[in-house]
Amino acid sequence: MQTSRVGRIAACAVRISLAAAGCSSSGTGGSSSSGASTPSSTASSDTGSGSSSSQAPDTSSSGGGDQTTTDGITDTTILFGNSSPQSGVFASAGQADRSLKACFDDLNATKGGAAMADGKTRKLELKIYDDAYDPAKTLENVKKLVEQDHVFAVTGVVGTPTNTSIAPYLNDQKVPQLFALSGASKFGASQATWPWTIGWSPSYATEAAIYAKWLSDTKKNATVAILAQNDGYGNDYLNSFTKSIEGTGISVVAKATYEPTDPTVDSQVLQLSRSNADVFFVITLPKQAAQALKKLQTLNWKPLRILANPAASVPSTIDPVGRDYSKGIISTNYQKDPSDPKWADDPAMQEYLQKIKKAENVTPQEPTAVQGFAYCQAIVETLKNAQPTRQGLMDAARNLSKVRIDLLLSGIVMNTSQTDPFPIESTYITEFDGTRFAPQGDAWDLEGKTPISTS
């Protein structure tokens, strides 16, 4: 196997990573209750239309028009905004942001907040609105966060369609869209048109390319059947995988898609089984992955099973199907897994498990919950080198060098530059062993080589 040790950070989701998230997960409409203007409240927001134009970051304006001061930041506090699914079918995807809030609260209580490049330490506040993973609602919420709540930056929004819906507006307003929790490569590839947007977790295109390389080493001339979500999340994987297998002898012999709101994926799995492919590549969220694996159990088709990272959740995908049956499933991972006994005595994991107890409606073993604490650390590291302006925040986010996050696997570090907009480009191939997704061999490193897809 052609592998190399990671020189930098490789999440979502997980599940999100929700396609993960990161990450993504999906859901429909859903109501949200109105809350006071305090961190972590959820509320509905007024509608409005946003411009789709964007401009390069400009230090002559601090964002939101011709303001002379930057909204959302004082000498003592920073107000971040977030829109994520807190209700509805996919509310579990919002665990990343509930975990983020718990991390902010802990930092405020134990360290007085986070330090910035001007030498001042500021408390971190987070205002969360519920969007039930509805992109139209996400845009509505984000407009309220910017125009009424006057947040400093929007961070940790879960999902590809949701982040896509807000990127033109935030870039027009010159408000940072910091560490979007989606692996869609367009959140790095679109620097010229979306200079105020940056992702965080390894891109779906990176992960798909790694699967192609791994298969070409371990299962030459394999035939592949693919189940994919019918949106940018699924397309990013499909485009990258298809391109990466060119000339390898590996071939895609069957494809089927589903809508996030479809009640089941049984018919798609049945259709794919008729191909009798060697490999079943599942590009879904955990709910649909569990459905697909349950259906697979009833069929006389025994392929090698690969789960896209956002679907590789032990609590949400593996446990509903059965751990014995799930042995041998392949995926990837770049962060430490709370369900892995290997990390029982790890100081960073112990600290996470202790502090996450204070979070509301969070399952500590979910990859998205770990992701929330991990990208909280990423925000803190970014703030260390940021001047207290929106421009300063984006400058710092685009100039990360070998930043180590304790909840990420060995060798995974964050690197960005003006020519490399992807913070994490490394990850491990993993195999479920009945207890955990165990890393196999060294990390696969695509530093500076992330495939680009703008789907």
Q: Could you name the key traits of this structure?
A:
alpha/beta, four-stranded parallel β-sheet, 455 residues, single chain
Structural commentary:
With 455 residues, this protein is of the alpha/beta class. The chain is built from 12 helices and 16 strands. The longest helix is centred in the C-terminal third of the chain and has 18 residues. The two termini are 30 Å apart. The N terminus is likely disordered.
Q: What is the average of the pLDDT values? A: 85
Strand order of the largest sheet: 2-3-1-4-5-6
Low-confidence stretches: 1-68
Indicate the structural class. alpha/beta
Total helix count? 12
SSE order: EHEEHEHEHEHEHEHEHEHEHHHEEEEE
Radius of gyration: 20 Å
Helical content band: 25-40%
Oligomer: single chain
Largest sheet: 6 strands, mixed
Tell me, what's the shape?
A: globular
